[in-house]
Amino acid sequence: MLFDTFASHSLQLANHMVMAPLTRSRATPEHMPNALIATYYGQRATAELIITEIANLPPGAEVLGSGATVEAIGRDRVGIRLSPYGVFNGTGGFDHGSAEQALLEKRGDLIAFGRPFLANPDLVARMHQDAAVNTPDAATFYVSGAKGYSDYPVLAD
Asked: What tens digit of pLDDT does each residue of 54-81 get?
């Protein structure tokens, strides 16, 4: 199920894997995206749907969103209902097996992965092939530069 196509209203995806937002901004001091950010998201484009992080905001700035609501769907997992598609996705602690199980049990239409996508730009291919996954380097989560951001290894072709 995880690798089946997904369709809901005008949303058409090649799989049920979503990249969850992570606070990993490598933006400029003026909070503008740069080439490194484009590389990072380009590497992870097989996620089909990417919910990007919020750049660090200057004092007094306000975040305006689409009205997403958060719901508990189980221990250490949170669901996000996105408007206007009504898509329900589970985030937090999923691996290939638990993601498939959540879809089979109809606990979500899409499954969002955060840290697994962070450390595995090719996460979709890795899960599709049941390949080992890279472990995220927590020491690099909130630093600048490519290390721990766009330098994680991918599967050999």
From this structure: 576 666 665 555 444 444 344 344 444 4
